[in-house]
Amino acid sequence: LCFLFWTVVPYLYIWFLYKKKKINDMHIPEKEDRIKPLVVACISYIIIFIILYVLEGPLFLKSIFAVIIVSTIILTIITYFWKICLHASGITFMVITFNILFGKWMLLMIPLIPLIGWARVRIKKHTVGQVILGTGITAIVTFLIYYNYGFINLF
């Protein structure tokens, strides 16, 4: 159910837009074209978050969707004004989440963050600033929410 609302619904909407020629590229390179898919994705995330609460789903799964919802809202607002690197955002979220789920050895994944950022800049899809902002916002949101839920202990 989580997979459906987290990935299938947003990607089906993007595919629908592409088939209807509302977007020219499934990667949605134009920031203006990203707004509707981000809003649809956020609505989908909110639906699964509500389902998880109603069904008393695992606390960590609820915290994951809390991070995804808050990050997506912030990234969508920024996207109105500036294209932001969602790839950098996504890998940052995954590295932090995997570290909490699977332990400190997952710190070995940290180099993936600058590697993906470098790749996005190298293929001229983003600027360094867009990569840094995507990484930074998601890192802050992820840490704050996981800390609030009790999954990160700073002291």
UniProtKB/TrEMBL annotation:
The family database entries (InterPro entries) matched by this protein are listed as: PAP2/HPO_sf
Keywords for this protein: Membrane, Transmembrane, Transmembrane helix
Transmembrane parts of this sequence: 35-55, 64-82, 94-119, 131-149
Protein name per the record: Phosphatidic acid phosphatase type 2/haloperoxidase domain-containing protein
**Native organism taxonomy:** unclassified sequences, metagenomes, ecological metagenomes
